[in-house]
Design goal:
alpha/beta, 8 strands, about 325 residues, 8-stranded parallel barrel, TIM Barrel, globular, 13 helices, about 45% helix
Length: about 325
């Protein structure tokens, strides 16, 4: 495992996981999608089996297959590969991280266990969870702040976890600009080395003004070049340019992450199928998928943003 600490800057794409019509893993589409994303200018890394990748509903065997396929692609491209895991106990987290050490994976992004949202959970329990993982595995860790207030890590707890040697990065996805700003100020005051990636699809450009060093956002599965352009502009200090490009993407962004947000995966897959990057737009139940009317709106918005002719088997559907 090569050293990746200090390299968590730029755009990280949490890719979707393609399935066949039968619901089985579509490895061919997965490799095609990963290879495409890995060649997009400005992409620093790929993230496997996150929520957008339907990780919580994949079997252990499917996750390993995804890690292997995408890991081989990222190795060839010289990118960072992050594996998302969803442990429910410390022992499970340690076992999963140790297993990842044997795969082409550079870091583990840990979804908070359900226990973290069970009543009022203090920082000591959360810090101890990460301490024990860091002591038991050589895998670099990515802390994940998900957009559910009952799960949030408070500022003090984030800073305590950030001091752990194995914690290399933090996906801040609270969708709360005030909390984001408070966290960034305190991390800077304490001179924490942990790098921060914004997961806040709603205020990506603003996140860089607040101190983010990159982005890890599901919406970047589509119009990837433009999201990478936002990252490059923001990290170079051209925040006006970053805001302008994000404004261009606003309609598509709202369509993908409109309510019910749980269907965002279906919407992203609809566009990726339209592009010809995945063969089917199948999602795992209980997700319902998109309606024909919604499909037309998504593809029309994407075509306008892409600004180029895109071959797809769905052309006939959108013109009918």
């Amino acid at each position: 495992m090569e050293k990746v600490e200090g390299r968590f800057q730029g755009l990280f794409v949490p890719h979707v996981t393609p399935f066949r019509e039968s619901g089985d893993l579509d490895r061919e589409s997965l490799e095609r999608l990963a290879s495409y994303l890995a060649t997009q200018p400005g992409v620093t890394g790929l993230v496997s089996c996150a929520r957008i990748g339907e990780g919580p509903v994949l079997s252990s065997e499917e996750k390993i297959a995804v890690y292997q396929v995408v890991g081989q692609v990222t190795r060839r491209a010289g990118l960072i590969h992050i594996a998302a895991i969803t442990p429910q106990s410390t022992d499970e987290a340690i076992r999963l991280c140790r297993d990842l050490e044997e795969l082409p994976v550079d870091a583990a992004m840990i979804f908070p266990p359900l226990l973290f949202a069970w009543g009022k959970v203090g920082g000591d329990l959360k810090v101890r969870f990460f301490e024990e993982i860091a002591q038991s595995s050589a895998m670099p860790l990515v802390l994940f702040q998900i957009p559910v207030s009952s799960y949030w890590y408070d500022v003090e707890t984030v800073c305590r976890i950030a001091q752990l040697e194995r914690v290399a990065a933090y996906k801040e996805a609270s969708f709360n600009p005030e909390l984001f700003a408070q966290t960034m100020r305190e991390l800077a005051r304490q001179k924490c080395r942990m790098q921060v990636l914004t997961g806040n699809d709603r205020f990506v450009a603003q996140s860089y003004r607040l101190g983010a060093e990159g982005a890890l956002i599901g919406v970047s599965n589509v119009a990837t070049k433009k999201w990478a352009a936002i990252d490059r502009a923001a990290r170079s200090g051209d925040h006006e340019r970053a805001v302008a490009v994000e404004r261009e993407l606003r309609e598509l962004q709202e369509l993908i992450f409109g309510e019910p947000i749980v269907e965002a995966v279906s919407r992203i897959k609809t566009i990726l199928r339209y592009q010809g990057l995945i063969r089917w737009d199948t999602v795992r139940r209980p997700q319902l998928g998109v309606t024909p009317e919604e499909r037309k709106k998504l593809i029309a918005s994407y075509r306008e943003i892409a600004g180029e002719e895109i071959r797809s088997e769905l052309d006939a559907e959108t013109s009918s």
